[in-house]
């Protein structure tokens, strides 16, 4: 095959992809999309760059992305460096006052700063916020139930109230908010460590977002983890509610969050593999779709 013909065929493939994206771009333009970027998906610089390109793509085709970031592994390594013990119970970090200082420092001072600066290298749209800013996230101490026992997790919170006014201001001005998930404690004068999936779902609900995308380090939801044949591409709210008690630690807060968002009116929540470059674009703008889509029950 001549090289000219090869080039033409490759160009045609690209045109095909663009044409395929058109109906989705038309459908989603103007919609708010909350993207939860998990710490486990921030594997290397190339992937972070691909994430930033996808966010910019969303922005430029008229979607309104809001980034809510995690940073569990990054917090772990800082705690380790500082010699502070940390354990997880039910997928949540037991957070002592000492650990809370590190959580805030790593999320708002390191991970958020890095993402904001990466996005702003493309164009100066990103604005970092902590849930503490402008009353964005107000929380209440969260306890969990383990074998019938109420377990105290320290400074861990559930979102009680979201004040999305500051996010609306930013979005309306063409900005891309990048949110760290620390909440003000409404019952005290302290702060709370909120799981980033939980916070992303609460923010998506409060914004009336159309979609919640959750980038993680697995292909999607497995019905029978870790059986690799049990990956599910679509599941509705009732099916997920039934599955929830059987899920393992990491997936539990994530799927609870997805369900919460759907119940609150978000049209779909997608669990996507953040280790695959441009997985968000594939999920949103192509017919192929990757990952797991959680939808409302059919009426
Ligand atoms: N049913 C399941 N399907 C997919 N992953 C699961 C399941 N149960 C447990 N997991 C684990 O959950 C992990 C993702 O959750 P987590 O580590 O909290 O991610 P993130 O930091 O992105 O929020 C996966 O890497 C996997 O090990
Ligand atoms: C209470 C709780 O567990 N908070 C999390 C907050 C960060 C987070 O959720 O990060 P990922 O999305 O990367 O897991 C933590 O301390 O690790």
Automatic annotation (TrEMBL):
<feature type="site" description="Transition state stabilizer">
    <location>
        <position position="36"/>
    </location>
</feature>
<keyword id="KW-0067">ATP-binding</keyword>
<comment type="similarity">
    <text>Belongs to the acetylglutamate kinase family. ArgB subfamily.</text>
</comment>
<dbReference type="InterPro" id="IPR001048">
    <property type="entry name" value="Asp/Glu/Uridylate_kinase"/>
</dbReference>
<keyword id="KW-0963">Cytoplasm</keyword>
<dbReference type="GO" id="GO:0003991">
    <property type="term" value="F:acetylglutamate kinase activity"/>
</dbReference>
<dbReference type="Pfam" id="PF00696">
    <property type="entry name" value="AA_kinase"/>
</dbReference>
<comment type="function">
    <text>Catalyzes the ATP-dependent phosphorylation of N-acetyl-L-glutamate.</text>
</comment>
<comment type="pathway">
    <text>Amino-acid biosynthesis; L-arginine biosynthesis; N(2)-acetyl-L-ornithine from L-glutamate: step 2/4.</text>
</comment>
<dbReference type="InterPro" id="IPR001057">
    <property type="entry name" value="Glu/AcGlu_kinase"/>
</dbReference>
<dbReference type="GO" id="GO:0005524">
    <property type="term" value="F:ATP binding"/>
</dbReference>
<protein>
    <recommendedName>
        <fullName>Acetylglutamate kinase</fullName>
        <ecNumber>2.7.2.8</ecNumber>
    </recommendedName>
</protein>
<keyword id="KW-0808">Transferase</keyword>
<keyword id="KW-0055">Arginine biosynthesis</keyword>
<keyword id="KW-0547">Nucleotide-binding</keyword>
<feature type="site" description="Transition state stabilizer">
    <location>
        <position position="254"/>
    </location>
</feature>
<feature type="domain" description="Aspartate/glutamate/uridylate kinase">
    <location>
        <begin position="32"/>
        <end position="273"/>
    </location>
</feature>
<dbReference type="InterPro" id="IPR036393">
    <property type="entry name" value="AceGlu_kinase-like_sf"/>
</dbReference>
<dbReference type="InterPro" id="IPR004662">
    <property type="entry name" value="AcgluKinase_fam"/>
</dbReference>
<feature type="binding site">
    <location>
        <position position="193"/>
    </location>
    <ligand>
        <name>substrate</name>
    </ligand>
</feature>
<dbReference type="GO" id="GO:0005737">
    <property type="term" value="C:cytoplasm"/>
</dbReference>
<feature type="binding site">
    <location>
        <begin position="71"/>
        <end position="72"/>
    </location>
    <ligand>
        <name>substrate</name>
    </ligand>
</feature>
<keyword id="KW-0028">Amino-acid biosynthesis</keyword>
<dbReference type="InterPro" id="IPR037528">
    <property type="entry name" value="ArgB"/>
</dbReference>
<dbReference type="InterPro" id="IPR041727">
    <property type="entry name" value="NAGK-C"/>
</dbReference>
<feature type="binding site">
    <location>
        <position position="93"/>
    </location>
    <ligand>
        <name>substrate</name>
    </ligand>
</feature>
<keyword id="KW-0418">Kinase</keyword>
<dbReference type="GO" id="GO:0042450">
    <property type="term" value="P:L-arginine biosynthetic process via ornithine"/>
</dbReference>
């Amino acid at each position: 095959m001549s090289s000219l013909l090869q080039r033409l065929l490759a160009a045609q493939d690209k045109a095909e992809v663009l044409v395929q994206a058109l109906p989705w771009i038309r459908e989603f333009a103007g919609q708010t999309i909350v993207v939860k970027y998990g710490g486990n998906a921030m594997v290397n610089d190339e992937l972070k760059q691909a994430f930033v390109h996808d966010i910019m793509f969303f922005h430029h085709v008229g979607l309104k992305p809001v980034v809510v970031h995690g940073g569990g592994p990054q917090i772990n390594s800082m705690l380790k460096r500082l010699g502070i013990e940390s354990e997880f119970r039910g997928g949540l970090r037991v957070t002592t006052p000492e650990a809370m200082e590190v959580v805030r420092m790593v999320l708002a001072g390191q991970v958020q700063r890095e993402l904001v600066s990466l996005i702003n290298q493309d164009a100066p749209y990103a604005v970092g916020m902590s849930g503490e800013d402008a009353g964005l996230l107000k929380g209440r101490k969260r306890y969990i139930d383990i074998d019938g026992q109420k377990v105290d997790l320290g400074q861990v919170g559930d979102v009680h109230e979201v004040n999305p006014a500051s996010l609306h201001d930013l979005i309306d001005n063409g900005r891309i908010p990048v949110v760290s998930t620390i909440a003000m404690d409404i019952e005290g004068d302290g702060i709370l460590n909120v799981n980033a999936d939980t916070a992303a779902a609460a923010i998506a609900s409060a914004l009336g977002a159309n979609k919640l995308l959750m980038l993680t380090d697995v292909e999607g939801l497995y019905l029978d983890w870790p059986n690799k044949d049990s990956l599910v591409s679509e599941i509705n709210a009732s099916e997920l509610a039934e599955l929830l008690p059987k899920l393992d630690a990491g997936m539990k807060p994530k799927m609870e969050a997805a369900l919460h968002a759907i119940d609150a009116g978000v049209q779909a929540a997608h669990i996507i593999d953040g280790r695959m470059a441009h997985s968000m674009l594939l999920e949103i703008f192509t017919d192929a779709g990757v990952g797991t889509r959680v939808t409302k029950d059919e009426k």
